[in-house]
Amino acid sequence: GAGVSQSPRYKVTKRGQDVALRCDPISGHVSLYWYRQALGQGPEFLTYFNYEAQQDKSGLPNDRFSAERPEGSISTLTIQRTEQRDSAMYRCASSLRSGTGNQETQYFGPGTRLLVL
Amino acid sequence: AQSVTQPDIHITVSEGASLELRCNYSYGATPYLFWYVQSPGQGLQLLLKYFSGDTLVQGIKGFEAEFKRSQSSFNLRKPSVHWSDAAEYFCAVGVGDSSYKLIFGSGTRLLVRP
């Protein structure tokens, strides 16, 4: 079946603009995760949803970052007033069952590469 | 704070040679352990995982990893590397009640000589 998909795959924006990154998880997957990956580094956790509920947003770097998953499926990560330091690969993952209290495998999408000029 | 260390930024091996990629973690209890591979333009693909039980774990594409509690290590191995194995490899851990919050190492880039 289809894997996790993300759009756009590449996004170039000017500093100060808002961007919205979309994640479409594997069908039927309960949990969804967002990570950010700087060049030469491993992914870093941003936030986690169980169905439509945002269970953990401890990794969001500041209040310019927000995420939602209103119907428990597709999720959007929004960055307001982008800054050059926001440039990175943003990765989404999903898991079949709840990630809380379970050892769930996370399946990752191809990522969105964001460049802020 | 928990951390994951992959001490080798780049490794080059000849095709057909054996491979070992190192991963060390710092955490008091036994974490959940994962190896992912990232090929250009692709998402992270899970190679294998360790939760409990047998400390030698078999994964896809002929990879295996061994959990050594005494060394806090989870090294990835393959007896004979193929050119298609050239990619970046990430070790990750999940710990405690927040095990969904994977902590990744900085990755090891594998180059394969023909």
Structural features, described:
The complex is a heterodimer of chains A (117) and B (114). Chain A is an all-beta fold and 117 residues long. Chain A has strands at residues 5-7, 10-13, 19-24, 31-37, 44-50, 53-56, 65-68, 75-79, 88-95, 107-108, 112-116. Chain A has no helices and eleven strands. In chain A, the strands form two sheets. In chain A, strands 2, 4, 5, 6, 9, 10 and 11 form a seven-stranded mixed sheet that branches. Chain A is globular and about 40 Å long. By secondary structure, chain B is mainly β. Chain B is 0% helix and 51% strand. In chain B, the strands form three sheets. In chain B, strands 2, 5, 6, 10, 11 and 12 form a six-stranded mixed sheet that branches. A four-stranded antiparallel sheet of chain B has the order 3-9-8-7, with no helix packed on it. Chain B has a two-stranded antiparallel ribbon with strand order 1-4. Chain B is globular and about 45 Å long. The A-B interface holds A 3-4, 31, 33, 35, 40-45, 48, 56, 58-59, 91, 93, 95, 99-101, 103-111 and B 4, 32, 36, 41-46, 49, 51, 90, 92, 94, 97-107.
